[in-house]
Amino acid sequence: MQAGGEGAQEGRTGAGRRTRGMGAREVGAEGERLATTYLRRRGYEVLERNWTCTAGEVDIVCEIEGTVVLVEVKTRLWREVEDGPLPELAVDGRKRARYRRLALVYLCTHPEVEAVRFDVVAISIVGRRCAQVHHLMGAFAWDD
Fold it and tell me: Is residue 75 over pLDDT 50?
């Protein structure tokens, strides 16, 4: 995945919830909760979570400095730091194409929005208490 030029930010946050024994859906929901908290703390206004349409679902729709951002959240549980592949690697060409289709629907249903940016927030939950956040701003473009 190409980090589209705008950059990446990293951070750590307390996972806050027991993660052992969680199913994939619960891990995803916890990751989206952590990503929402992370984005708000960095000045993003969260407009919607789990925005859905006929083309699928956007995990988080937010805005910062007049830019609407469609965010894909990828979360993985690790026993130790760097225990597995980076979560952001799961955002493959098929997922990026789906987000482009979602963006077209979003723009059609929100005529006040002129453009969107595609971000990925990758969360690695390590153990019970620590989560590493990697925010890829402008993670991909319309023509990748």
Answer: yes
pLDDT at 12: 46
> Which pTM was predicted?
0.79
Residue with tokens 């708000």: 40
Question: Could you give the CA distance from residue 85 to residue 39 in angstroms, rounded to a whole number?
Answer: 23
Domain ranges (residues) in the chain: 24-136
Q: Is the dihedral of CA 5, 6, 10, 13 positive or negative?
A: negative
To the question of domain 24-136 being in CATH 3.40.50.720, the answer is no
Higher pLDDT, 12 or 35: 35
Cβ contact 81:65 at 8 Å = no
- Give strand pairing partners of 130: 14, 126
